[in-house]
Amino acid sequence: MPTLRSSSSSPLPSPGALSPAPSAPVQIPGVRGYARPLQGDSDSLSAGEGSDFEDSLRCNVKKRAAKRPLRSTPVAKQPKKGSRMIHGHRQKKAEPPASDLFDAVRAAKSDMQSLVDEWLDSYKQDQDAGFLELINFFVQSCGCKGTVTPEMFKKMSNSEIIQHLTEQFNEDSGDYPLMAPGAFWKKFQGSFCEFVRTLVYQCQYSLLYDGFPMDNLISLLTGLSDSQVRAFRHTSTLAAMKLMTSLVRVALQLSLHKDNNQRQYDAERNKGPGQRAPERLESLLEKRKELQEHQEEIEGMMNALFKGVFVHRYRDVLPEIRAICIEELGSWMQSYSASFLTDSYLKYIGWTLHDKHREVRLKCLKALKGLYGNRDLTARLELFTSRFKDRMVSMVLDKEYDVAVEAVRLLTLILKNMDGVLTAADCESIYPVVYASNRALASAAGEFLYWKLFYPECETKAMGGREQRRSPHAQRTFFHLLLSFFVESELHDHAAYLVDSLWDCAGSHLKDWESLTSLLLEKDPDQNLGDIQESTLIEILLSSVRQASEAHPPVGRLTGRKSLTSKERKIQADDRMKLTEHLIPLLPQLLAKFSADAEKVAPLLQLLNYFDLSIYCTRRLEKHLELFLQQLHEVVVKHAEPTVLEAGAHALYLLCNPEFTFFGRVDFARSQLVELLTDRFQQEVEELLQSSFLDEDEVYSLAATLKRLSAFYNAHDLTRWELYEPCYHLLRKAVDTGEVPHQVILPALTLVYFSILWSLTHISGVDESQVLSLKGRMVTFCELCQSCLSDVVPEIQEQAFVLLSDLLLIFSPQMVVGGRDFLRPLVFFPEATLQSELASFLMDHVFIQPGDLSSGHSQEDHSQIEQLHQRRRLLAGFCKLLLYGVLEMDAASDVFKHYNRFYNDYGDIIKETLTRARQIDRSHCSRILLLSLKQLYTELLQEQGPQGLNELPAFIEMRDLARRFALSFGPQQLQNRDLVVMLHKEGIKFSLSEPPPEGSSAQPPNLAFLELLSEFSPRLFHKDKQLLLSYLKKCLQHVPEAVGLSWGPVTTYCHSLNSVESTVEASPQGHPPSKRRRIEGPCRPPREDTSSSREESLQVASMPPMPTLTSTAVKSRQPLKALTELEEEGGSEAELAQSRPLLATPRPKISSSRRFWTSLSPAGPGLGSRLTRLSLMEEDEDDLGMQSEPSGEWQAADSQTSGQSSPSEPGLDLLDSTELNIEEIC
């Protein structure tokens, strides 16, 4: 039987040369056994092992053959090549059915054990054909169409066979079975691994120790794993590693059998002379000897696979291969720790923790989790832990969330099973992760926190197989520790995120609302909590109630779950029922105790949002409802803070549901409260209107009453109390006299605003007087708000702007949409003065100098952040007025001109406004962009004058803004063609609109505007550039001073339009300079598929894409001698056209963003005019502009020159394609 072998003269390169290490070698000082070899050493080692592997394997086979007794029908293990003859019945079948086994595994319709049994039967009948079928199965699993024939198997060596298969491999596609998309091929990978496992399992008592099949299979897989073809390397590595895993299981069983045999032998030997059986002792000795031989053979196979495959492939360039190696290494350590859980194997996982690919790092952490999860194995991990602990702790902050999650879980296992390993500094680096935005990561960190701080003090002990109920003392201890951690750590301001992080591991503790409320209602002065602790505990109570009731994380925390299971929904309903039953009687007590503290009362009132309010009826708890309404009345009368009033108004709104049987009681309580506030307001406002002076107490009382009414007007309809008239008179006095304090004006504005909105809901279209009355109120209120825009108090100005923008949007033409024509008389269009004042307010209060935020932890930074949010709110309201047609669209220029300067603060809002405006009217939007540049230029010109204008920083900033505007047009070049041309023409007119001073050689004052226009030149077609050049020359003829002068802006603008001129014209000999010359090979033959040509023309890489599969076969390339010699000889263009007549038809391929196609012969429509060649661009533009330079315009220009097609033809617009992925920076 011939043997697949590799010779030392194999043409395949060494594994080290094929697969460089993914990261730099790590030298670990001070730790024995962890010194990683240098790259050169590993390469030399790879070469040596690759050449000597089969010789050593052959020696091992001969050694095993000598020890084993001959059978009745001996089979030669390692016959020399050519010594075995192929019998006649096998000569008829030249090639075996190679696809049968592969098709069966791919289909996965039959049981894998029966499939392996069938192959074993065929192998026993014909070993050559059976083994060839197995070899071809692995070859086809790689995606190779070639097969190994009996002649190849007989005459070729291992490396020659692999070289032959490599030459037959199809490199056109990167897909092979293990990497092919779709669920079918993903299932194939599982079937493939199951086949390898079943093969070893079925052969463990027969063929596994028969040297020929397994040794040759290992040799084949080792050779394939060294191939440069990724499919060969990936598939063979997976097969080898799965084969190794199965051999490890067999070795583990042999080890167990040896231990049992040893115990039986010792027991038999210890018997007395009369009871001892010599025959049994002899059989046990023979059995032990056989097991020892089998174990040596298995260890030899494992050693061959580890050194031949794993040592080289764990640092393969392909991350999938590295992940396979690390995953299987972890399984070996777990299943056969006696042999593999040593520092010599652990070092590979430690090194790979630094891998740059997430999947590999993930496999490392999962492998370590299996080891650290077993307390019996942790004693053998001390050296590894001391060396790589810092790396494992640092991976908590990994950029990939799933890797960070596994790192935290690994550290949790280390915390549980290895006492004292993690220091306080290590733990403190993990604590902040409980506030991470990713919920899985925060939950893992919460579990670590629970096991570190809470479990040792609050653990539940089990007695008699049942868990004891947690004692109240343990629960109080838990909440005291939780308060201590949150308050003292000062890592975050909101306890809701800490509760959510601990919910999965300590949810039973957090849902102990009895202990929570008992701590809050504690009467013992020695047990009372501090003020900060009480506020934090109330927030924890609210967070736990919300988490149990809604079952979703707080705002801003990401989770991948979409819906709850039926079991989780049942738990949610039960928890909501329990918390409602427990908190309804205690809520009035909590409100009574903390009624004086607004910070504590507001979250207590929010508890009602998560109650099952029907329990008030079903459980006969109306008396507790009466107590709650009393406490709510007292809280509203006592407090004037917006958060408390909003929470109280919303709580009362929830109870005012007509479906509840207690609605009458709640409505009566609401009427009593509103009447009390209204009477107080009427009395106080009359005093203010009649008197010209009020003391501070009277002002505070009136402002507080207005705040309460405004908050309740937001949630409840208070129209029947007629609050509009007194508030209007109050505001009118404030505008006319200015004697009303601003503390009173702010809530009065809001109250009138809500009054108008509630009146709008009562309009039915029947009563016209009602419509006219509302229209009059709305117009009057808009006039009041317009007057408030010029108030001296910024708070009043901002409030008036917000209310005015909302009202204008509500009463815009959009309100009649949906069959509401009866509301048409209410449509209101603001006058020009109001629009101007709104724009002026925006300039004065929004587009101010942006402040620099530092770390964000100081009080000043928080104040700046709040101010930024308020300014963003104002800008968003103004932009909505623009987009809904309330304001003139030209006013958007006041917003767009600040796009670049305030990009960090308002970039997203302005970009969205620009996008929506372009969707409404593309032409008008383009004119607005130009108007924005004109306004900025005019402002700068008035401030600095025309001299040296283009050198100022403000002008450079304008150029950046123009570049952003140009990029905002996107890749739809043909669609935007007319708009860009119009923009250029209008810009040229503006630049020459003012003539220079008479008798002066100075340039026109607006001429520098041409430099801004040059940023839009890349968006032009070649033909349009030529037309614009002619248009510019005609315009310059009307400027007398321009004759004979070379103005810089004109030169710059013309240069941007001349960027595609042929370099032939720039050289007196008709050729470009030699240092800039670049000659390409012959053009590709014409393709029938225009879509593929378009895709290829859109490539911007300077090199062709590397094929996914790289063959070891050497492919020759045709030299470009003819074209090179012709260019070096300096031949004319006509000679080049005659020597290459076939260059007219194919479409040229843009191979670089700085390489363009130009016409060699601009004149004449003949064949020579259609010849193209590559020339380097002479213009020095920014990379940003070059990336967005349209590549299709050059082909459009060529076709226009040849007269064969029109530039407006859709096929010429190569940039109008979704396949060109140009990211707009704007």
UniProtKB/TrEMBL annotation:
Does the keyword section mention Cell cycle? Answer: yes
Q: Could you give the subunit structure recorded for this chain?
A: Part of the cohesin complex which is composed of a heterodimer between a SMC1 protein (SMC1A or SMC1B) and SMC3, which are attached via their hinge domain, and RAD21 which link them at their heads, and one STAG protein.
Role summary: Component of cohesin complex, a complex required for the cohesion of sister chromatids after DNA replication. The cohesin complex apparently forms a large proteinaceous ring within which sister chromatids can be trapped. At anaphase, the complex is cleaved and dissociates from chromatin, allowing sister chromatids to segregate.
The UniProt similarity line reads: Belongs to the SCC3 family.
Query: Where's the SCD domain?
Result: 310-395
From what superkingdom does this record's organism come? Answer: Eukaryota
Cite the record's Basic residues compositional bias ranges: 60-70, 78-92
Pfam families in the cross-refs? HEAT_SCC3-SA (PF24571), SCD (PF21581), STAG (PF08514)
Which keywords, in A-to-Z order, does the entry hold? Cell cycle, Cell division, Chromosome, Chromosome partition, Nucleus
Q: What protein name is recorded for this chain?
A: Cohesin subunit SA
Main location as per UniProt: nucleus
According to the UniProt entry, which residue ranges have a biased composition of type Basic and acidic residues?
1079-1097
Biased composition (Polar residues) is annotated at 1150-1161, 1197-1208
Q: Where is this region: Disordered?
A: 1-96, 1064-1226
What InterPro entries is this protein classified in? ARM-like (IPR011989), ARM-type_fold (IPR016024), Cohesin_Scc3/SA (IPR039662), HEAT_SCC3-SA (IPR056396), SCD (IPR020839), STAG (IPR013721)
Subcellular location(s): the record lists: Nucleus; Chromosome; Chromosome, Centromere
Q: Where is the composition biased (Low complexity)?
A: 1-25
